[in-house]
């Protein structure tokens, strides 16, 4: 009430945020703090030129959201909050250090389907792509932005032409992130997930299939131990193969080695991961839809691998 009575006085908003922050460590205060998110974002939006207030507000929101996620509470922030966050992104789009924090906040917010939908509605995707292009070297920003893109693409409406056009612009940028951070497992995993979501939404064009397939194979080769990356990368490849035989042939004829051998290697590395086996089976199932590809897979004794998988997971 104290903050709401004096929106226009920056010092009141700053003191209010600082006082709310003092309750963060008190577990019994958590349900009350949850109700303060709108007040905090409105204070940030009202005094958008004050970087100190932005940082303090963002830090507090991160604390509240972290506790919410730990307790399994998904915060479905409404459209007005999404709008406030978008304005903050635009006002401070060149401040790398603050953006790094803000993008982490957006990633946590977008874990809620409703919040992701609201962020998409207010038109945040072009801003995310601009940030990625500008700070391609920053692994933290790339990790968070790709995670947000994944959430927004999954919540997207593929029948909406405007939405589709915006998401199509995300493909080259996400590919550039993956190329830049191939050896950073966490960022590569996030980018693979985003590419999977974009492929599911039909955002790739004919010219994207071959280079994107090669890039995803590189990600699998460079990060063999990351089960989630292998799973999501394989699902992304399956989506590409479903769309085009070009992608299936690119897996067979990859210049860095047989994609079929890579599939075998990944399965044997993750024998205890049913999610990985399932994703690889889905990929192989899409590949055998093309006769030429199926004949090649048969010559490479893929039936033996499939029999192994069947024995390993008889009840799945």
UniProtKB/TrEMBL annotation:
<dbReference type="InterPro" id="IPR016024">
    <property type="entry name" value="ARM-type_fold"/>
</dbReference>
<keyword id="KW-0723">Serine/threonine-protein kinase</keyword>
<dbReference type="GO" id="GO:0004674">
    <property type="term" value="F:protein serine/threonine kinase activity"/>
</dbReference>
<protein>
    <recommendedName>
        <fullName>non-specific serine/threonine protein kinase</fullName>
        <ecNumber>2.7.11.1</ecNumber>
    </recommendedName>
</protein>
<keyword id="KW-0808">Transferase</keyword>
<keyword id="KW-0418">Kinase</keyword>
<keyword id="KW-0547">Nucleotide-binding</keyword>
<keyword id="KW-0067">ATP-binding</keyword>
<dbReference type="InterPro" id="IPR011989">
    <property type="entry name" value="ARM-like"/>
</dbReference>
<dbReference type="GO" id="GO:0005524">
    <property type="term" value="F:ATP binding"/>
</dbReference>
């Amino acid at each position: 009430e104290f903050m709401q009575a004096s929106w226009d006085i920056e010092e009141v908003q700053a003191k209010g945020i600082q006082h709310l922050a003092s309750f963060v460590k008190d577990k019994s205060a958590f349900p009350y703090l949850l109700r303060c998110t709108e007040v905090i974002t409105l204070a940030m939006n009202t005094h958008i030129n004050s970087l100190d207030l932005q940082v303090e507000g963002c830090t507090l929101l991160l604390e509240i959201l972290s506790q919410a996620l730990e307790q399994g509470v998904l915060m479905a922030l409404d459209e007005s909050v999404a709008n406030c966050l978008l304005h903050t992104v635009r006002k401070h789009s060149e401040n790398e250090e603050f953006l790094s924090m803000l993008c982490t906040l957006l990633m946590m917010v977008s874990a809620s389907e409703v919040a992701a939908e609201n962020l998409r509605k207010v038109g945040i995707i072009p801003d995310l792509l601009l940030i990625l292009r500008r700070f391609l070297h920053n692994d933290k920003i790339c990790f968070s932005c790709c995670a947000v893109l994944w959430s927004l693409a999954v919540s997207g409406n593929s029948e909406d032409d405007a939405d589709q056009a915006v998401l199509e612009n995300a493909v080259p940028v996400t590919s550039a992130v993956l190329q830049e951070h191939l050896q950073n497992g966490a960022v590569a995993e996030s980018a693979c997930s985003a590419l999977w979501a974009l492929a599911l939404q039909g955002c790739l064009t004919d010219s994207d299939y071959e280079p994107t397939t090669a890039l995803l194979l590189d990600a699998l080769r460079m990060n063999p131990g990351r089960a989630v990356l292998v799973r999501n990368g394989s699902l992304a490849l399956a989506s590409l193969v479903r769309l085009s035989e070009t992608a299936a042939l690119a897996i067979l004829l990859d210049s860095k080695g047989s994609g079929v051998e890579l599939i075998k290697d990944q399965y044997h590395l993750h024998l205890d991961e049913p999610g990985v086996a399932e994703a690889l089976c889905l990929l192989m199932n899409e590949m055998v839809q093309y006769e030429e590809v199926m004949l090649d897979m048969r010559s490479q004794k893929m039936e033996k691998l499939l029999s192994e998988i069947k024995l390993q997971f008889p009840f799945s």
